[in-house]
C-alpha cells in the first residue's frame, strides 16, 4: 500500500510557553531568530523565523486551535543545526551564563543525515535545546 502522503520538509512547529516575552527574548538573543506577529481573529500569533522554517509560539492557556492534545511548556526536545563552530557556541553559552548540559561539553549524537557534534541546554520553559554541527569527515 502506498503512503497517504510523501513528506517533503518541515514548515513549522509549535512551542507552548509560560511567558511569551521571555521566550521571544531567548530565541532572538540566543538563537538569532526573527520575531514576527500575525493578527488572527482579533488575537495575535507570535512567530520566530529561522532559515526557511518558523516556530509558532502559543501562550499556555491561550493556545490557537487546533492545538496538540497535551500542550504544555517544557515538553519539547528540539535540535537546530547551526553554522557557527559548536565549540565556540558552547563557550558563548557559558559566557552568557546559560547552563550547558554534560558539564558544558560538546557531545556526539546521531542526526537525521549524519553524526553531529552537539551542545544541550534548556530554554526558559525547560525545553531541551540541542545545537549541532554535522560531522563532515
From TrEMBL:
<dbReference type="Pfam" id="PF00903">
    <property type="entry name" value="Glyoxalase"/>
</dbReference>
<comment type="similarity">
    <text>Belongs to the glyoxalase I family.</text>
</comment>
<dbReference type="InterPro" id="IPR004360">
    <property type="entry name" value="Glyas_Fos-R_dOase_dom"/>
</dbReference>
<protein>
    <recommendedName>
        <fullName>VOC domain-containing protein</fullName>
    </recommendedName>
</protein>
<dbReference type="InterPro" id="IPR029068">
    <property type="entry name" value="Glyas_Bleomycin-R_OHBP_Dase"/>
</dbReference>
<feature type="domain" description="VOC">
    <location>
        <begin position="9"/>
        <end position="134"/>
    </location>
</feature>
<dbReference type="InterPro" id="IPR050383">
    <property type="entry name" value="GlyoxalaseI/FosfomycinResist"/>
</dbReference>
<dbReference type="InterPro" id="IPR037523">
    <property type="entry name" value="VOC_core"/>
</dbReference>
Amino acid at each position: 500500500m502506498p503512503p497517504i502522503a510523501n513528506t517533503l520538509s518541515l514548515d513549522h512547529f509549535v512551542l507552548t510557553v509560560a511567558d511569551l516575552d521571555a521566550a521571544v527574548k531567548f530565541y532572538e538573543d540566543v538563537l538569532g531568530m526573527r520575531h514576527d506577529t500575525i493578527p488572527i481573529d482579533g488575537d495575535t500569533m507570535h512567530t520566530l523565523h529561522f532559515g526557511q522554517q518558523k516556530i509558532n509560539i502559543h501562550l499556555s492557556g491561550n493556545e490557537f486551535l487546533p492545538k496538540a492534545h497535551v500542550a504544555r511548556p517544557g515538553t519539547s526536545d528540539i535540535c537546530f543545526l547551526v553554522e557557527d563552530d559548536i565549540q565556540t557556541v558552547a563557550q558563548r553559552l557559558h559566557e552568557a551564563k546559560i547552563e550547558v548540559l554534560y558539564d558544558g561539553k560538546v557531545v556526539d549524537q546521531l542526526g537525521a543525515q549524519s553524526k553531529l557534534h552537539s551542545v544541550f541546554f534548556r530554554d526558559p520553559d525547560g525545553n531541551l535545546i540541542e545545537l549541532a554541527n554535522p560531522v563532515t569527515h
